[in-house]
Amino acid sequence: MNRTPSSPSPAPARSQSTSRANGIGPLELAFFVVAAAGPLLVVAGYTPLAFSIGGIGAPGAQLVASLVLLFFAVGLTRMALRIPNAGAFYAYIGQAFGKMVGGGAAILALLAYSTIAIGEIAVVGAFAAPLLDRVTGVHIAWWVWALLALALVAFLGHRRISVSAKVLGVALLTEAGVLLILGICVLFRNPPEGFDFSSFTPSAILAGGGTGAMFAIVFGAFIGFESTAIYAEEARQPEKTVPRAIYLAVGFLGIFYTFMAWIIFTAYGKSQIVAAATDDPVGLVFTAIEQYVGHPAFVVTEILLITSAFASALAFHNTAIRYLHTLGRERLLPEAAARVHPTHRSPYRANIVQTVFAVLVIGAFVVAGVDDAYLGVFLPVVSSGVLAIIVLQTLCSASILVYFNVQHKDHGLSRWSTLVAPLLSFAGLLVASYLVAKNFALLSGQTGWINIVLLGSLPALVLAGMLRTYWLRIHDPAQYEQLTQTDVYRIEAPRTG
Fold first, then answer.
1. Which of 6, 478, 479, 488 has the fewest Cβ atoms within 10 Å of its own Cβ atom?
2. What kind of fold does domain 26-396+428-482 have according to CATH?
3. Is 177 strand, coil or helix?
4. How far apart are CA 308 and CA 241, in angstroms?
5. Helix axis angle, 421-438 relative to 379-402, nearest 10°?
6. What is the pLDDT of residues 310-356, one digit of tens each?
7. Does residue 169 carry a pLDDT above 80?
């Protein structure tokens, strides 16, 4: 494995970086992270819950979350340029707080992305099975659809990354398109109470009794955008592609989620939205589509909800296997996971591992007799991963502050990008982490000991990563010294075969 460790000093010049002619550009990379968030799944599945729990201030809460994550993106892009490692969170946290902490963050991030990918696979089955049953009268168990979706995800994961990017691009444009059509129709068809912007006022945002739970939901809607740096090795001119993709992803998600939340608010009216969301959270968006756009659009949206879940599963699967590939190269995990395909240049060994793991997890739920894939598989599997990512975002914000204001004060960058924006994001994400943990039962759909196990798994994974890092420090000190130092902009030839 040929690699040139990067210097820990923050040299901004990247003149030796590799321009990969067949790599993905910023728009394709942004497709990955936006598709991972599952815009239609969020708007149809989580926004009604935000209205039901938090009241009319859901659009304003979505805007607040957008701003916090935009502040996070400011520091994240600066960190991505100074520490060009595909481990992203792992490398940033490790260089700021030490390799041991970085190793803990690495294992936590890997399992978070991996379990979210599996949960998204399960929810494909949860959406596909009842739709086919209702339309054709043919009943096929959810897990059959889930395994079929997994097979297609694994096939695309084996291919060159640009193939998955094209699939995600089509899925994203179609699901965003149908929601924008709803938005246009609401704007031009005289909504019942006119155009009201009171949902953005502080009093509306903080009025509901479930404000904390509402913020837990809206922050969770953005999960996935931070994975942009993980694809740096397969990007064209990664030092330019990665920052642009981060801003594209955060900007689109922030504007789109906020706009669609306000459109749904407007479609029902200030006096009716909370009651409507409480009475029928699952059908809230679909009812609006049928009323304002028509029944054909309603049917199309039902189908697109399945493709949205599939796109999210594909994006998170690709993220998980690249994180596994990176940790294999760093030897925090077996080095075999770092092998890339000689033709497709994909991390095919990691793809196999993630696919087998997904089969085992889904198989365990099938053996346990779980019939409701949404409540019984998707929510409990994904919830701890969502919390883990928000916690990692918080730690990453702290690492940006330490890196630029303690370790490398001569960075030559603005105080806004290295102090003010990261400090604002750290404060916001710290509050978000607390709110998600406090309202965890709402996200997991579970009670009692199951939530204790799910929450307890997070510190257990961090401890496992730290112990593995300590083992490297004792038994392979040379490799230990290389942790967090791999420069993806200068990697010459990843090992194949």
1. 478
2. Amino acid/polyamine transporter I (1.20.1740)
3. helix
4. 25
5. 150
6. 888 888 998 899 889 888 888 888 877 767 766 766 688 888 999 99
7. no
